[in-house]
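Narrative summary of target 7.
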Amino acid sequence: MGVQATVVFADLTDSTAFFEALGNEKATTAITRLTQWIGEVCEAHHGRVVKKLGDGVLAVFDRAVDATDAVIQMQRGHRLRLEKWPAVIRMEIKAGVARGDVVVVDGDCYGDAVNVASRLSDLSGANQIWVTESVVSEIDDGQGLRFRSLGPVMLRGKTEPLPLYKVEWEDDVASDFLTQQAVLSRVEPDNSSSSTIRLEHLDFLLSFGAAEMPIHLGRVDHAELIVNDPRVSRLHARIEWRNGSFMLVDLSSFGTWVRFAGSDSDIALRRDECQLHGSGEIAMGVPFGDLSAPTASFSISSGTTQP
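Modeled conformation, tokenized:
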């Protein structure tokens, strides 16, 4: 029988560059000390370190609020630490937090929450904390924690998208678009076959109905939206109509990034998929941080057909 637990997977970014800059011995010592400190932060917040995986730490907590407090403390403490490090050897922390049934066997733990926490850590960016809705719903408003909705995201191995949230741990974050436990926002699928998606890239403005799916974005001539850039794969991404939603599927060599309107968080897709809703932008081949990134904007309307 499993037990309800909150799982944290914290990982260090850019460890390869760190080893190249410091050499194997110094880099190994530094990473070992850093993962040891991450484990100590988890234990100080009533967590149990299950194992350390190279440059990552897996820990479990009884309470979602303790797990969230722990990863916030990690980010804030590590930010102070990085102020003393040269830019060339800086490694940020990214973390995923999920809640669900966990089975403990010989000190190790297994279960869907473990897999989801690991996947969220992979998808999140440097200095980010991504959590599932099950984590947010366990935290009372009075705890003062703030979350920003990322919308539904399709994770590998899942049959339906999961509503995900980003923890806003920085003190100076703006209050717009923040979500508290009592007002969780969902993006419900629209089963109307007259739903449309409008795509815009450079001088191209195209509109497609649900019945016209799937469509492709890429360099090849037969792609519905052609993006002529060497960083874009021949067939870079596919948009499907599935279960009443437009789904973006990455097919590329270098990845696809999605940024929804009103959010400053990017969703990185590497042979993954996410549900498109509202409006936003898609970057192909390189992230939005590269000002030369080839992008396409999208907007979705329900119940009416775009001209």
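The mean pLDDT is 85.
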